[in-house]
Amino acid sequence: QVQLDESGGGLVQAGGSLRLSCAASGRTFSSYAMGWFRQAPGQEREFVAAINRSGHTYYTDSVKGRFTISRDNAKNTVYLQMNSLKPEDTAVYYCAARSGATYTWNPNDYDYWGQGTQVTVSS
Asked: How far is CA 50 from the centre of its chain?
């Protein structure tokens, strides 16, 4: 069992930055692939970024060059650094953990989810 706790969301102006953190419980964090997803009102949950156990990363096209996912296995934490934020980035952001070595964009492939943190970007 893994519990995930996101933090770092808030209100920021367009062009600004935020760093989201996701702290995981348990001693097997390093064995999980981790992902960030987001969900805007009235929209489906969508993939943002993922990182596998080896540190390889994968991003959706709309955030490439602006967002960076990273992990610190010693701290059981995954991060999402978000730069050059746009109003369309406004959503609740969720982190998720997937047992196994590979990452995936499909939310149904993830086993554990955090409660989410709100990110609001004003124009």
From this structure: 7
CA distance 95 to 93: 7
Sheet with 4-7: list strands edge to edge.
Answer: 4-7, 18-24, 77-82, 67-72
Query: Per residue in 91-118, is it b (16+ CB within 10 Å) or e — as a string?
Result: bbbbbbbbeeeebbeebebbebbbebbe
pLDDT surpasses 80 at 27 = no
Amino acid identity, position 40? A
For 24, the token pair is 């995981």
Q: How far is the C-alpha of 37 from the C-alpha of 119, rounded, in Å?
A: 12
Query: Going by C-beta distance under 8 Å and a sequence separation of 6 or more, which residues neighbour residue 50?
Result: 33, 34, 35, 36, 57, 58, 69, 103, 104, 105
Q: pLDDT over 90 for what percent of the chain?
A: 87
Among 51, 7, 9, residue whose Cα is nearest residue 29: 51
